[in-house]
Design brief:
With 81 residues, the chain is mainly α. 47% of the residues lie in helices and 0% in strands. The N and C termini lie close together (8 Å). It has helices spanning 16-28, 36-47, 60-68, 73-76.
Length: 81
């Protein structure tokens, strides 16, 4: 699967993997309504904006707004499922 990356100002990657996996579970539970790896990648990227591993984990509203502002994921790759 190819998943686009997201440009954020990275302060620390501490916890990004854990956040990525949590977002995968949220997407599987149909809480996040964007393609699963795309949403998980965005969630992990947003979590890297502060030094600690939890302070910038996005809320669902923040994640949805961020993803809505990005180019259409299906245009980047046809294999996002």
């Amino acid at each position: 699967t190819q998943v686009p990356t997201f440009s954020v100002e990275v302060v620390s990657t501490l916890g990004a993997g854990d956040v990525f996996h949590g977002a995968l579970v949220a997407a599987l539970a149909d809480i996040i309504h964007f393609p699963m790896p795309y949403a998980a990648n965005a969630t992990a990227a947003l979590s890297c904006r502060v030094l600690d591993g939890r302070g910038a984990i996005p809320t669902l509203s923040e994640l949805n707004a961020f993803l809505a502002s990005q180019p259409d994921p299906s245009a980047a790759s046809s294999d996002l499922t």
